[in-house]
Amino acid sequence: MLKGRLRKDRIARHYMLTVTILAMFVLLLIGGGLLVKSLPIIQEKGLWTLLSTSNWRPFKGDFGFASYIVSTLYVTGIAIIIALPLSLLTSIYIIEYASPKILRAFSSVVDLLSGIPPVIYGVWGTLTIVPFISETLAPHFVEFSTGYSALAGGVVLAIMIIPLIISILMEVFGAVPKEMREASMSLGATKWQTVKKVVVRKSIPGIVAAVVLAISRAFGETIAVLMVCGNFTDLPKSIFDACYPIPALIANNYGEMMSVPKYESALMFAAFLLFFIIVVFNIISRIVLIQIDKRYQL
Amino acid sequence: MKKLEEKIFKFLMIGSTALILSLLLYILYIILKKGLPSLSWEMISQIPSGGFYLGKEGGILNAIMGSLYLIFFSVLISLCISVPVVMYLNFTLRRKSKLAAIARLTFDVLFGIPSIVYGAFGFTLMIYFGLQASLLGGIIAISLLIIPVMIRSIDEVAILIPNELVEATKSLGATNYETIKVITRQLLPGISTAVLLSIGRGIGDAATVLFTAGYTDSIPSSLMQPTASLPLAIFFQLSSPIEEVQNRAYSAALVLTIIILILSFSARYFSRRLSKNKI
Predict the structure, then answer these.
(1) Which residues of B touch A223 (CB under 8 A)?
(2) How far apart, in whole angstroms, are the C-alpha atoms of residue B21 and residue B29?
(3) Mean per-residue pLDDT for B25-47?
(4) Which of A119, A256, B37, B159 could disulfide-pair with B231, CB 3.0 to 4.6 Å?
(5) Of B16, B24, B103, which is closest to A24 when you measure between CB atoms?
(6) String of DSSP letters for B27-62
(7) CA distances to A112, A174, A296, A298, B235 from A171, in Å
(8) How far is B101 from B32, CA to CA, in rounded Å?
């Protein structure tokens, strides 16, 4: 009887350990797999040429990623510039000023926003942001814009990363001990001074971590951006120009890449690039967030 | 002066909170307004007939069924992996174990990897094993995508299980495996929330299935056949120049949004309802 129970226990233990190791191994497998696939193109062209030139003629064997990289930075930059102030203000209000009832209600709003699939954001963007830019906004600045632009991509991305930033910031601000706030108030500081000089200052590592996580999310977002960005291979000159971020490039060309061997390798290199940047960013920001958690846990 | 600064910022803070709330409502309103007119029973009960993509009859049943197949099997696979992982990290390893810390970091990182990378990786895997774009390929890619979601979400609840419960079961002579069986019952609300959350994430994602599952007008009858999915149905129909087809993209978007809303609300309901019996 006992023997049977112990055997079951042993089997369960082994199974759990194996599954855990395997699941962790996926990270290495993805990195390794994409790297192996992208090695041919790296060896032929050299890493620097791939990253710094912007000639993209797959059928002639030219693969320069510069304009895609610039496009990615463009939309991500716009998204962060829009999303960060909004998220900061909102999460400070929710944590420091709002009643518990509003806090609970607003976490549902954040959950719902983060649950909406990218493709829905894309549909919404083409219906609202794109026409708004081409008809109302762009005529003030440039002669002509279809609306499918870096700006449209940035705005849609901003809305998509806002729930992510807010949910992290709410945790980060919430982790600042109550005693610190009370100490500041008892010294005669106003609520706002306390927020500004104690809560926000204490939370700067957490805010940075949230931004880094948001950047890495924005880097990899595919479908929503693809739907509103215009996907035009050229260095974008203004935010009203079409642009072509890396994930959109991968998604748009997977069909034809099979016919040209170097093409497949180039696209897998793009995927590896995304993977690499995002893993590094994630590790850094997660470690910062774990440290914050630990510091205040005692 | 001090008061003025606080007033201005308070105004900005309330403003941005209201803006975010209204954005959510605005998104839902636009999807509803555009999707409702062309939503019909025919849309969700028929597969595309000839000339569907020119605006003729048919519906998106292929995409709806495809998405359901994909997500059902992916969730099943992910459960078999996530639950043991979380149990191992929380109740077999010691609380301060190094392996657990590294594992959690790894899953956080995996959680952050974009779906297009999972899609591309799934695609290379499929080439390696000589598979065509198929239901199976899609299931593999979506499982990869939602396993970290599920692990993180169950882990959040598992961490809250009081150590006393574990000690109480063990002091009665239960083996580690038997303890875990007891705890699993306690974790059911957390697990069901995690399942709903991962369904939401997996069913709405287009970039993973774009490479791996393909697209077809019929409902797949085996794992090796390609399959349609809702997000791709929206994506492809929206890029059509014909207005009727575009309208169908909007109503498909409405269908997907309704599914997501139902999932989201039932997740909330479950976690509140079931957690009443928690210690």
Answers:
(1) 206-207, 210, 231, 235
(2) 12
(3) 88
(4) A119
(5) B103
(6) HHHHHHHHHSTT--HHHHH----TTGGGT-S--SHH
(7) 18, 5, 12, 16, 35
(8) 44
Instruction: Identify the CATH number of the domain defined by range A51-297.
Output: 1.10.3720.10
Alpha-carbon distance of A118 to A78, in angstroms, equals 18
Query: Which residue on chain B is closest to A283 by alpha carbon?
Result: B109
**Containing H/E element for A139?**
none
- Domain boundaries, given as residue ranges, for chain A: 51-297
Grade residue B51 by pLDDT with cuts at 50, 70 and 90: low
B221: its two tokens: 């009858």
User: B113 and A278: CB-CB below 8 Å?
Assistant: yes
Question: Per-residue pLDDT tens for B7-35?
Answer: 999 999 999 999 999 999 999 999 999 99
Compute the mean pLDDT over every residue in chain A, rounded to the nearest whole number: 88
Q: What is the ipTM of this complex?
A: 0.90
**What letter represents residue B256's amino acid?**
L
Host H or E run for residue A63: strand A62-63
CATH superfamily of B42-277: MetI-like (1.10.3720.10)
- Asked whether the beta carbons of residue B88 and residue A124 sit closer than 8 angstroms, the reply is no
DSSP state of B132: P
- Tens of pLDDT, residue by residue over A227-286, are 998 877 777 777 888 888 889 988 888 776 666 778 888 889 999 999 999 999 999 999
Q: How far is A118 from chain B (nearest CA, A)?
A: 7
